[in-house]
Structures
1.
Amino acid sequence: MDFGMIAAISAVIGVLIAILAVMRQSQDTHVTLGVQLLHDLNKQFDSERMRQYRRDIAKLCMKREKGAEIVSTEICTRAADVMNFFCSVGMFLKRKILDLEFTYALFSSFVIVYWEILEKDVYEVRKLTNDDSNWEEFEYLYKQMKKYERRFKKSPGKVPEDLIQLFLKAELLP
């Protein structure tokens, strides 16, 4: 093999190593940005404004549990900020901006319970408006959380009513 051939092979190997390094750096940057986004989303979810929205939903749902007639449109209107927040998280997850495992660890307990509390109301509003796209990213997020959960538990099913009541009471806390 002559010197020219060795130099050409070395150049190709060098380019391949550089490409792999750039790809690795891109993956690391993607993970870092996803973690930063989750941190920012968590701060937003835990903000006083969002906590007040969550308290309002809990109060409304507890009234309904005690027999008050509250129509689905009112529930969804009052819960819109929280549901829209979860829509944003779902959209980021769907577009692979967020990692499923990190998202599950941070938000699954809220996503799962809120969806199960509000699911009937969402379906009713979809039916009334003839628009199945209402809060579809929230539903997507819920399904991804449940799918991820099934990897570790045998058929977790719906959240038991007593746990939902504990959740709602916890949401009332300042």
2.
Amino acid sequence: MLYKLNNVTNLSAARWAAAEGFDYISFNFDKSNINYIQPMEVLNICKWVPGLKFIGDFSKVDFSYINEIHQMLLLDGLEIDFETVKNLENSHSKIFIKSTQENINEVMNFVNISKMDCVINFQKESKILASYPLEKWFIPSNAKQFIINNIPLGVNFDSANEIEPGLLDFEELNNALECWKV
């Protein structure tokens, strides 16, 4: 199973993810989001944390901005909404399609027929997860209760919040991770 830490905003969270064996970390590039991180900060974090794959989360941003940041940072993947994915001509990066209960069937069909390297990135815990094969899904860390006999491709975790600048509280995140490692 793969692990992805979302909304990384500092080097401490990225280093923690690397030490805990995460596969991906995700940076939010929506300037209106509280977890927004400037591209130059991401560039610095990427230099200090080897072994991880870096994903750009592009909610509510225009397509030209996605291309600009993707080329500048050489990201390993893009986390984008389904409408944007449908407009991509081709991508050499892994695509994490943000999905909701409302569009899940359409997204699954796209993932199954697309020639792009796509996975479904389900955003919320839901009972719907029990009724789908999860081999192409990243699911929220709090959705384990909804999985019966399926093992997902990966699990999304939200980064720890800063208690004060530079000081992070990883206790809740460690507890969530331990649930999945068992």
3.
Amino acid sequence: MKIYLLTRPENMPPDWDEWNGAVVAAESEDRARMIHPGENEKTWPGWIPPAKVIVRKIGVAEPDIAAGVILEDFHAG
């Protein structure tokens, strides 16, 4: 399991009540890209389409870390 930073492109800044990004644990970059910062959301409001997410590997998770959101950054309004 690896740790990834998910961010928006510079030309897609967040509005109020949208996510800025997240730190997630995932098996691959492709799986990380599909994780919604608001993990329990069933749709994508407040976040960008997966194809536009910038994914950057920032580390390796401990063996007991489950896949999913570790930390989310929400731009509350």
4.
Amino acid sequence: MSDEPLMPEAGDPEDAPVDPEDAPVDVDGDDEGGAPANDDPVVALEAERDELRGTLQRVQADFENFRKRTMRDQADQAARAHEGLVGKLLPVLDSFELAVLNIPSGDLGEAGDKLKKGVELVYAEFFSVLEREGLSRIDAVGKPFDPEEHEAVMRDEGPGDPIVTEQMRAGYRLQGRVVRPAMVRVGPPPG
């Protein structure tokens, strides 16, 4: 036997050596040269069914993702609108607070005391409604300065990390998010 590779005769392709990569693969086990039996209508229908089932599952998943995204966007939009309304009401809240602080008690007699009590009740009710909607006041005085929650308009120089020493205007959070930072004066920590 010689070591030369066998060369097929021209015109006899079946005797040619076959590369394993190019060999036909028997995918359905029918031993007919690797070609699936497309002539069988049951197999064709099963393949079509599987393809349609896969398409349906992808469409259902896409729709579910779209539904969730739409609901999340609607909730975000409602929260932004809610935040906008509360932001517009904060100056009214500030005005009520100033009114309560500046009505003198006892100097105006019984009518003045009734007026002060009425304004205090309206202020308390108004603030209570906003609290039920998720509004909370930011406690600032004595806390370390936080630019996310505090707007420093005055600063007393000194060593150490600044803390809030005075609050000029109240700050508020709505459901955990800052809607208005507290206007504050900062200074060095005591001691």
